[in-house]
Amino acid sequence: MTQGELFGGLFDASPERGRSEPAPGAVLLPGWLDAAAQLRLGAACRDWARPPAGMHTVRMPTGGTMSVRMVSLGLHWYPYGYRGVAEDGTPVKPFPPELGALARRAVAEAYGATVGGGISGIGGIAGAVDYEPDVAIVNHYPHGARMGLHQDRDERADAPVVSLSLGDTCVFRLGNTETRTRPWTDLELRGGDLLVFGGPARFAYHGVVRTLPGTADPALGLTGRLNITVRQSGL
Ligand SMILES: O=C(O)CCC(=O)C(=O)O
Question: Mind listing the pLDDT tens digit for each residue in 194-230?
C-alpha cells in the first residue's frame, strides 16, 4: 500500500483556522489531515496499539504513572531514552516508511518547500532539508489525561518534531526553551491538526494542559485523543 493510499487526501486546511506560527520555528497547520486520512491513521494506531509491543502505561522514575498511554514505533521510548525492546520484552514495532513519508511532507509544507519542487524557506531550520524520521510515539489521552511540560531531549538530533492530532481537541501549551514557567502560548489542537516544532522551537517546553472530552468526530470511533509525534532519533 502506498503512502497516498494509506494517508492520502492531505492539506485540507480549514479556511476559518489558517496557518499560524505560534513561536519562531513552530508551525500549526489546522485541518492538515482530512477526515479520510484521520480515519486511516486512526485505524493504523489501533493496529500499532495491539500486543506484542503494544500500548502500555508508563511508570516514571519518580514512582508515578503517566495518565497518557503510549506505543512506540522504530525504537521504544522510556523515561528517559530509547531502546529496541518494548515494555513487554518483545521487539518494538518497526517504523512505517509511509509514516516517515507523511512526516517529510509535513516538514516540507510547514517550512515552505513545495513537495516535488524547489525549496524556499526550509533552509533556516536545522535538520529540515535532510529530514530522516525513524521513530514515532503514539500517545492516547483517555478523558482526564494530560502531559506535564517537558522538553523532547532523548533524541540525538535537532531535526523537527512532527505532531499529528486525532480525536478530542486539547489545549497544548508551547513554552520557552529555558524554563517550565511563562512565557508560553496555549494552542487549541483539534483532530486533523499538524504542529511542527523545529529550529528555535525544537527544545521548547511543551505539554497538554487538558483535553476536551466529546469533541472528537464520532465517525472516528475513538474515545479521547491520539497524538502521534514523529522524530529523528539520531541513534
Ligand atoms: O500530545 C501532544 O500533543 C504532545 C505529546 C508530547 O509532548 C510528546 O509526545 O512529547
Answer: 999 999 999 999 999 999 999 999 999 999 999 999 9
Residue nearest to atom 8 of ligand 1 (CA): 229
Which atom of ligand 1 has the smallest separation from the CA of 225?
Answer: 1
Residue 151 near residue 205 (C-beta atoms within 8 A): yes
pLDDT digits (tens, 9 = 90+) for 37-58: 999 999 999 999 999 999 999 9
| Global pTM exceeds 0.90 | yes
Domains and CATH numbers, the chain: 26-231 (2.60.120.590)
Which cell numbers in the block locate residue 111?
517550512
| 76 Cβ contact partners less than 8 Å away, ≥ 6 residues apart | 53, 82, 83, 84, 85, 86, 87, 92
* Ligand 1, pocket residues at CB < 6 Å: 137, 139, 147, 152, 163, 172, 189, 206, 208, 227, 229
Give buried/exposed letters for 172-201 (b at 16+ CB in 10 A, else e).
bbbbbeeeeeeebbebebbbbbbbbbbbeb
